[in-house]
What does this fold into?
Amino acid sequence: MNQNSQISDSVQKIENSRASHPKSVREMTFRELLREINWVSAIFLVVTPLLAVILLPIYMYFHGWSWGLTAFLVILYSISNLSITVCYHRYFAHRSFDVPMWVQVMFLLVASMAFQGSALRWAADHRRHHREVDTDEDPYTINKGFFHAHLGWMLFKDRHPDVDVIPRDLATHKWVQLQHNYYIVVAIFMGFVVPGLIGMALGFGFWPGVLVGGLTRIVLSQHSTFLINSAAHTFGNQPYTDKNTARDSFTMAFLTFGEGYHNYHHYFQADYRNGVRWYQWDPSKWVIASMAIVGLAKRLKKVSAEEILKARIAMEEKRILARGANQERVRLLRERILAAQTRWKAIQADIKRYKEEHSWNQVLVEKRAELELARIEMNNALIAWKTYVRTWLRAQTA
Ligand SMILES: [Zn+2]
Ligand SMILES: [Zn+2]
It folds into this structure.
């Protein structure tokens, strides 16, 4: 069998698993419902938390607990989560940066430990989530409820086939294909056997390694990722867009390794950052930036500060106009910011050119002073805007 037919076989398998189901779950008979259950996924998602809750206390009762085991759990949990956020999400699903082939293979291997399906399947679902967000075609739409978005969608077979969602760039990727075809074997090895072996090497023993670094870590890590589909579409604010349910929240970002700045992410999905400001909690962004520093990641996609500011201003403008703010005043305040920004950028470009031309010093000094003045004007314009917006937003809630 040649490579192309293998790829189309695999794509076909995914497409077949998305057989058409016109009836809604509520309209089905019990027998029909049973046929709709995705048994492998459902049993795994129900049995693993139960096993962890039963086996972990038994282990602790007989063998006690140690700081070493806590560290072991936290480290594997962090690797597991980051492998999903950095590798599956920001690399394979969004292609927000480039890495060499050997790093891609490592990504596929490590991310298999999280038991969230193959990269091909994960990225297919995720790209559809972005494209069809909040509609029936969104596999984890929040509009079917918190439970559906968090976990429920994985208990049943995909009910909305869409042939175009198979990511062709990934379907033709030799290693993605291999991981997809042998996913269960790779996942069991990386998710259970490797933690067992590490447990053995660290002196905890193989089975305690499987229980803590495998089972418990998988359950915790899965639910952390699932929060992005449920809680990050429910709690928080919407600074960039209110056209979908995605929200920004520090708490969610903290619990999901940076993915909680989900409103930003849905607006600028290609950006390698989700927490776009330097102080926003986004360990996934820090990992990618660190990879870039050591030369492992290249061409990091980044939305410009101006674009981000424009999106924020547009959203704030929409909000205050809806509350009755003066349209002309809003326009003037907004244009003042944009004019200051344009001027600041123009002077910066001038300075760069003068430096290249080695112009005499007085010109540069003058330009630097102009730049500083433009910066002050930009800050003042922003303060004026923020004050006006805040006053209107407060007035509404008072
Ligand atoms: Zn989302
Ligand atoms: Zn995404």
In short: Residues 129, 233, 246, 262, 266 surround zinc ion (ligand 1) (CB under 6 Å). Residues 305-397 form one domain.
